[in-house]
Amino acid sequence: MVECYGVLDDFAEAVVVAAVARLIGHRCLVPDDTLNPGRHLLALPDGTLRPAHVDVADTEDGSAHSNARPCTIATQRCRESVECRQSRWLPDQVVALADLALA
C-alpha cells in the first residue's frame, strides 16, 4: 500500500490519487477531510475511491498504517460516528475515477 500525505482539498486531488493507484496497480492511502488519523481514503487499483479506517501505530520511522477496512454503516462505529457522517466521503461511498473526473 502506498501512503500519500496531505488532506484532499477538492475532488481534483482525489482524481490524481485514484489515477496513481490505477497506474501503479497498488492501493493508495491518503488522509480524508476528517483529520482523523485512522480514517483515510483508499484508492484501489481499479481507480475507485472509498473511505476506509486503518490502524495507526507509532514506529521509529513515524506512523505506520495497516489493516485498511471500509468505512461502512454495517459497523456500529461508523453508523454512530458524527465524524464519518459529516465527511464529504460518507460511509459506504464508492466513487469511480470516471465519476471523479466529472466532479
Structural summary, described in words:
The chain is α+β, with helices and mostly antiparallel strands. The chain is built from four helices and five strands, in the order E-H-E-E-E-E-H-H-H. It has helices spanning about 10-25, 75-80, 80-85, 95-100; strands spanning about 1-5, 30, 40-45, 50-60, 60-70. The protein has a five-stranded mixed β-sheet. The protein is globular. About 30% of the residues are buried. The mean pLDDT is about 85.
Brief summary:
This protein is of the alpha+beta class and 103 residues long. It is built from four helices and five strands.
List the helices and strands and how they pair.
Layout: E1 2-3, H1 11-24, E2 28-31, E3 39-43, E4 49-59, E5 62-70, H2 76-80, H3 82-86, H4 97-102
Parallel strand pairs: 1-2
Antiparallel strand pairs: 2-3, 3-4, 4-5
Apparent shape: globular
Through-space gap between termini: 26 Å
Beta strand %: 25-35%
Using DSSP, what is the number of strands?
Answer: 5
The share of residues in helices is 25-40%
Order of helices and strands: EHEEEEHHH
Strand order within the widest beta sheet:
1-2-3-4-5
Q: Please, what is the oligomeric state?
A: single chain
Rg, please?
13 Å
Mean pLDDT reading: 85
Notable characteristics:
5 strands, single chain, 30% strand, alpha+beta, globular
